[in-house]
Structure formats: structure tokens, C-alpha cells
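User: Predict the full complex structure for these chains.
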Amino acid sequence: MKPVKVLTLSALLGSALVMGACGNNADNGAATGDDAEGQTDAGDAQLQGEISIDGSSTVYPIAEAVAEEFMLEQPDVKVTVGLSGTGGGFEKFIAGETQMSNASRPIKEEETKALEEAGVDFTELELAYDGLSVVINKDNDWVDQLTVDELKKMWLDNGQVKKWSDIREGWPAEEIKFYSPGTDSGTFDYFDEVILDGGQIDKSATLSEDDNVLVQGVTGDKNSIGYFGYAYYLENKDNLKVVPIVNGEGTAVEPNAETIESGEYEPLSRPLYTYVSNAAIKDDEAVAAYTQFTLENAAMLAEDVGYVSLPEEKYTEQLKTLEGLK
Amino acid sequence: MENTARVKSEEMVGRIDGRLMKNKVVKGIFLTATIFTSIILVVLLYRIISQGAPYLSWDFFQNFASRRPEQAGIKAAVIGTLWMMSVVIPTAAILGVGTAIYLEEYAKKSALTRWIQMNISNLAGVPSVVFGLLGLTIFVRVFGFGNSVLAAGFTMALLVLPVVIVAAQEAIRAVPNELKEASYGLGATKWQTIYRVVLPYAIPGIATGSILAFSRAIGETAPLIVVGIPTFVAFLPSGYLDSFTALPMQIYNWTSRPQLEFHNLAAAGIIILLGVLILMNSVAVWIRNRYQAR
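Assistant: Here is the predicted structure of the two-chain assembly.
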């Protein structure tokens, strides 16, 4: 008879877990019900629905902040945000599994084509700017600024070990250690396109999907150089040195909130996007409200999580585009 | 005469010295291995606990994810993981033990069963991402479960199934033949023998092996990402077809954030994950002791 007991036990255990979860949920449901009532009295329109968002992990902090704030106002709209990466997000967007897809690079041609084939009309929205920051070790006292050409010479693979003295005369004859985000990330794609023209990155580079690993790498090695999103530099600026990059007009510019927003810090400033399905905006009031909420609050929330807001008029312009889609 | 005897005993002493030496060296190697492992474990635990413990509070359990580290909590992830395990455990246990009983007790040892056996062992070594892709195609898309508790639970059940089967087979194979023969000798049927003799004897082994497999399902992140399980979820699932998030997803997200506070939150999340694992392992130990005591 003993096995029966064990089976009963595991069944009980299983159902206890479920019941526990349900119990919690019932409480929660009741609470939101009260909230909803309170707000209806105040005259706010309460929406219902489910919105699923997926895509870039770089954009995720902004998306999370927007979802968090939105659900405080509309607790009955269930918003979920995933971080499958820009490419993985688009794949789900194409399959019609998500209504919005976050991206840290513009949509690729083949992705647009697949969306057309799937019959998904979409609108591209810019949420904020990120300034890819090129960083060196704190003890590196020879690099004062870098040009795009120097960056290219440095990072492009030429099959040989590169020394700092190869890049500019007078720099030490020490081997350069490279730290770069992994090839799956939109950050890598952007750097590869803008600096390397799609070429092969130095094969000795340490690639990591976790930007904190890059921070540690550059912090620990005097001859290292790396790049990643501005937020990671900002958080570690006491341990790292950021390199001013010479822009198209010939001035060396350091990334900071002003230079990124004004577009002075180029070419390494990049917009962060979200792509939203037109049909979802048209058919689902919740998605329309959510998209509007996103554009209205993106500036404040993006800065909260370490990104740089777009100029005011960009948001107004996009809000107008949205009105046309409803 | 005397001389040769002395030489012989000296030779013998020399050889004994060699053996004793070897004995000591081997003991030393094993001791070093144990100490090394323990030190790594202690350092790891110390780091995680010292980093995460200050962040463990009632609020941490009560709050959903947030962009503000001081308000961020792990409620959705803990409850989500429990929901997922309530699919994984029954599914993997019933399918796994069932398969093991069939293969060990019913199936004839033929080329076909050997082939099935080989494939099960190979499946245990397939990377978890591949199971994620399988889950995405079959459960999320073909069956239309979406990124729900059910889809993730079935995917994880498939992932741990080979390990459960192999563990259960080993446990069943260890049942002494004499016991089974005695049962048959008393006129019991095959099912009666399995039910009253084989299973009670094998349950401690099955439980130990299965719990190790289920622990893996709690900690895996890769298949969940592939299946499309979201990370930000500010509600609890109310059914098996609802969206949810799980502990490793939330921990993974927090470790990849730039802010240090989020890394500490990740450590706090890891403590919770360890807690859930220890709880599950103690259930296994309890089951084992109960059945071994008989």
C-alpha cells in the first residue's frame, strides 16, 4: 500500500502548490477589483486585456519601467515583457505571438519581408537613445581620444596581434586586449556596422553576452579596451575611463546625456526602438492606450534606468503618428 | 643463510614502504579534492549570502519586479516556479517511472529495446536549448499553449524525463531477484509483484534520482528563454494557460543589469532558489528514510 501513499503525497503536494498559488491569486484579484471600483468612481476608463512584449534585453529596462507604471493605472491589463533578444523578439513578432517587439537596432530587411509575408503591418517607434561607450582601463594614460578610423584599425581582424603602438606612434608596444558584447546582441550588430562596416571583429576579442563581464575585464587589465551601453559606463565610471570619439565634424566628444541627445556624440549614439503591430493598435484599446502611455512616459522612464531621452518634439511627432493608426 | 634472510626482509620492508606511501598519496589526493570542493562551495555561499541576505525581507516576497531595486520583489517568480513544478513533477514522474517499469519488467530484451535504451541515455545529454526549441515548436505553436505554465512545464518535464527514466531503471534493477521470485512463487501476478514488491523496494532510489532531476528543472534558464517565457510579469497565473515568469529568468535579468543593487537582488533571488532546492531535497531524503526504515 506504501506506493499509493507516495502517489497521494505527491498529488497532495502538487495540488497544495496550486491551491496556494490560487489562494494568493484570489486575494490579488479581489484587491484589483477594489482598485478598479475606486478608479471607476473617479471616472477613469478601466481597460482589460493582455499585451505581450518581447525583444532586446538592452531595451528591457525601459519596457519594464513602462509596464510597471502602466499596470499601476490599469491593473486589469496584463502586460508581460520578455528578453529573447532583438532577433528572437522579431521572430515571435512575426509569428504573431507578441503585439510589441523591442529592438536595439533597426529592423532588418529580411525581418521586414517576413512580416509582410505574415501580413503584419507595423510601426517603428523610437523610445530613447543609448550612447555606445568606448572604455579603457583607469591606468591607461596614453589614449586621450580616438577617431573612427583608429577604432576600425584596432577592432578589425587582420590575423595579427595588435599593439597600441600599431594604432598611433608613441603609444606603448603592448598587446591590446579586446572586450566586446556577444555576436547575438544588437549592440554588437550596431558597432560592427558603424565601425567595422560589417567586417570581422578581432578574433582575440573576449565576447560576452553579459556586459558586467566586459566591465570586469576592462577594469582588470591595463591594456584593454571595450565598448557597451552608456548605462554600464555610468554605473562604473569610477573604475573606468571613457574615450572621447572624434565625430564627423572633427571634434572629440565624450558621451553624456547632452551630447547623446543633441546628436553631437556620433556615430556611436543609437536609438532604441519598439515595433508595434498596427492591427493590435486598431483592434485592441489596451494596446493603443499602452503605446500612447509608452510614448508619453518614455523620456522620464528612460532616464530613470540610465538611458538618454529623445528631444521632446520626437515624442510629440510619434504620438501624432499613433493617433493616425487608431 | 642469515645474510639472504636479512636481504629478503629488507626488500619486503622496502615494498611495504612503497605501498604505504602510495596509500598516503592517494588519501592526500582525495582529501585535497574534498577540501577544494568544500572551499569553493563555502566561498560561493558566503558571497551570495553576504550580498543577498540584507535584501531578503517580507517586501521582497510580496512585490513584483520593478525598475527600482528597493521596490523590486520576487513574488511572480516564486509562485511561477511553483506552478511550473506542479506540471513538471507529475508529468515527469508518471511518464518516467512508467517507462522504466515497462523497460525493466515487461519489455523483452531485443535489439529494439536496446536501441530505445541507447536513445534515452543519449537524450540525457542533449543541450537544454534544444529541448527549448522542441517546446517552442510543439507545445507553444502546434498545441497552441502559448508561453504558458503548461508549455513551459511540459518542456521542462521532457528535459528531465531521460534522467528520471534512467534513475528509476537503476532503482528497479537493484531489486533482488529472490524477492520477485518469492512473490511469483506465492502466486502473485506481475502487476501485484511490481506494485507490492518492486516499487516499495525501489522507491528510495527513484525518489533520490528524480528529485535531482527536478532540481535541474528549477534552475534551468535557457529553455525558458527559448520558449518565450517573459521576465516582467506583475500578476500571478490563475490557470495553466496563463503567462508566468520563473526564478532563474528573474535572477538572470537582475545579474545582467548595470546597477549594483540589482546584482544584490540577484543574490537574494539565488538564496530563495537554494531554499526551494533544499526544501525539495529534504522531501526526497524524508521519502528515502521512510522507505528504508521498513
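Chain A touches chain B through 56 residues (CB under 8 Å).
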